[in-house]
Amino acid sequence: MNKYSEMSDFEVNDEVVESLGLYHLMYYSYDPYFIIWDVASNDLYNGFTSKKGHEFNPCNDKTIAFQLMIDNKLDLDFNPLTHSWSCRKLTHKNYFSSLNENPCRAIAECFLLIKDAEKDNE
After folding, report:
1. What's the predicted TM-score (pTM) here?
2. Interior CA angle at 60 toward 55 and 64, to 5°?
């Protein structure tokens, strides 16, 4: 369990947007809770292609989640004992890990744990 495990998908998505520096490119809907691209489509921002009017939802969109996984060289596998997905990264200084039934959510949480460590080292 990590500090992101108890957050809603919307809260985790918001943290990912902040970590990627994309906040100023998004529109936030609070009823219902969505984060939506608010810039022209097909522009590249931090490795992500904008899609005006489309939701930015790394907790449930495999295209976004897998881009995070590839860009950050994260490992992902299924644990049959816990019936959950394990996303992790081992560096020379740290080990980051997240377990979740949703593989996209596990990736987003692991990404945020890495970003937290990077902030702490600044």
Report:
1. 0.93
2. 70
Helix (H) or strand (E) holding 105: helix 103-120
- Can you tell me which residue has the tokens 């200084």? 93
SS3 65: helix
Surface-to-core class of residue 60, CB atoms within 10 Å of its CB (0-12 exposed, 13-18 middle, 19+ buried): middle
Q: Read off the tokens for 20.
A: 């990627």
Instruction: Answer whether 88's CB lies under 8 Å from 95's CB.
Output: yes
CATH class of 9-120: alpha beta
Length of the chain in residues, anyone? 122
pLDDT tens figures, 10-57? 999 999 999 999 999 999 999 889 999 999 999 999 999 999 999 999
For 54-112, how does the pLDDT look when each residue is reduced to its tens digit (9 = 90+)?
999 999 999 999 999 999 999 999 999 889 999 999 988 899 999 999 999 999 999 99
DSSP bridge pairs for 26: 37
Report domain extents, the chain: 9-120
